[in-house]
Amino acid sequence: MLLKRTLFCVFEKQRGRYAALAIAAVVIVVGIPLWWKTTETYRAWLPFSEISELDSLQLQLSVDIEVVFSRGTLTPEQQKKFPLSHVNEKEHQVDAKTGLRYKYETRYRTATIMEEDALNQPTAAEADLSLHMLSESSCGSVVVYVIPETAALLPEDVKVYVGQRRTALLRSPPFKSSWSLKEVLSNLDVKVEQVVSTMSFSHQDIVAALSNRVRMAKVTKESMADSMRAIKSSPGYEITFSLLNPDPRSHSLHWDIEGAVQSCIQPLLNKLAPIANFSVDSQILYYVVLGVNPRFDNSVSAYTLSADSLSHVINPVEARLGSNAASSNPVLNFLLYVPDSHHSPLFIRDHSKREVPSNAFHSPRWGGIMVYNVNEMYGPEAEPPVDININMAKVMGVFLAQLRLMLGVQHTHPPTGFVLQSPGSAGLADWELDRLLWSRSVENIATASTTITSLAQLLDQIGNIVINDNIAQQVSSAVTSLQSAVAELEAGNLAFALQYSREAILASERAFFDPSLLHLLYFPDDQKFAIYIPLFLPMCVPIVLSLLKIVSEAKKRRADKQAKSD
């Protein structure tokens, strides 16, 4: 009986050990991997190595330049050496992670018979049009026609004429007949470089476009002012024209806004179509007054608004403008304000206390306001409300200039002796469009690279953020588009570079602002332990104690055997 009881106890101990080992084995082999797999955060693959390369941005901007010599500028011996080409490169290290290289590939040749005929036009504007009809230059390129020093095509005090297209007329500097062709080209390169910086881009313009990556100290005040004035790059813009009539009982205002937009604004928007999509609407608001009370100036018998008070005008008016809730695009507001009869005429004064000729002002990245006085259009015997037809040509001239500034068309300061032809009804010259495309392409690349590298650093530091396939696709698309944009800039294909840079900034922002990234953003590890310990601790303690007991008994048996053998 005692033997049976002893065998039963031994059997129970062995069964307990085996049960503990079996449970531990199931937990370790099956339970932990299953728990790990079912609770792990899904993180799709991201091209971190390629993104890290974008953190150090090295851009090369390539410009194609063609210098065409007309009859009478070179000797026959010099002409025999044409055509020829020359490549000039300049490097600028903006900061530790951003570098710029400018590559100017210049081709020299003589003018064709048809180009000589075009240059024989009576005026420079007609010559510019005739040259454009012969051949259209590619986007981002510059063509310089060198005409004889004594040519009557340009006035005597004009050294360079820049037309509406991508061509410039350069009066030949005085050359000595004994000079070699190399000396002639070396003497001419200084003027050609000035023409290219005027028609293409300047180093400060490009550095200002990199403001998202570089410190403010690297940018000049003028370039930074232009950059801060222009609205940030966006796939689309909403443009709203508003007529403010604070006194409809005195004035019945009529404006042909639709016709004015079609004739004055739409040509500009058509040329800017590669940059963004535009939508235009208009509205008339009644009983809307300015947020400040103008002061009456006895010296001019008129009411005035000082420059210091203009900042208080926008907020009260903006509350009445409304907004387009169906669109997330930035809005540019252009307001035409007709003062009431009790505050007419009303003039805006600058910081020097002088009247602003346009009687208008603009607010950076918001829009502009123009004050339109109508008190001189009717006499005191007129019966209210007086019908007023607004001169839309005058109004749209002001709004067009403000719109150009808002969209980043920078005011060019040409060197002495340069004449820039007015863009005319198009609202924008081809070379002005190229300058804007260069800046926007670089700005888009800088913004997209900064966004995508910031997102990659965030996802790398916080390992419990879910990265779904949609985000991975957007990130990969942004990286691919960025690489393509950089490559197209290097190849000198400005139009394609802008297209890829737009795709990059859209994809990077969609990935960065994806709502799914916020689900586990603030779920730290200590909260995980607070959840899992009450669940797993009661189950793990018996298993761990059993395993410790088994190990202890095994050590004891080994010690007993060792003692018996001794």
UniProtKB/TrEMBL annotation:
<feature type="transmembrane region" description="Helical">
    <location>
        <begin position="18"/>
        <end position="36"/>
    </location>
</feature>
<feature type="transmembrane region" description="Helical">
    <location>
        <begin position="529"/>
        <end position="548"/>
    </location>
</feature>
<keyword id="KW-0325">Glycoprotein</keyword>
<keyword id="KW-1133">Transmembrane helix</keyword>
<keyword id="KW-0337">GPI-anchor biosynthesis</keyword>
<keyword id="KW-0812">Transmembrane</keyword>
<keyword id="KW-0256">Endoplasmic reticulum</keyword>
<keyword id="KW-0472">Membrane</keyword>
<dbReference type="GO" id="GO:0042765">
    <property type="term" value="C:GPI-anchor transamidase complex"/>
</dbReference>
<dbReference type="InterPro" id="IPR019540">
    <property type="entry name" value="PtdIno-glycan_biosynth_class_S"/>
</dbReference>
<comment type="pathway">
    <text>Glycolipid biosynthesis; glycosylphosphatidylinositol-anchor biosynthesis.</text>
</comment>
<dbReference type="GO" id="GO:0016255">
    <property type="term" value="P:attachment of GPI anchor to protein"/>
</dbReference>
<dbReference type="Pfam" id="PF10510">
    <property type="entry name" value="PIG-S"/>
</dbReference>
<dbReference type="GO" id="GO:0006506">
    <property type="term" value="P:GPI anchor biosynthetic process"/>
</dbReference>
<protein>
    <submittedName>
        <fullName>Fructose-bisphosphate aldolase C</fullName>
    </submittedName>
</protein>
<comment type="similarity">
    <text>Belongs to the PIGS family.</text>
</comment>
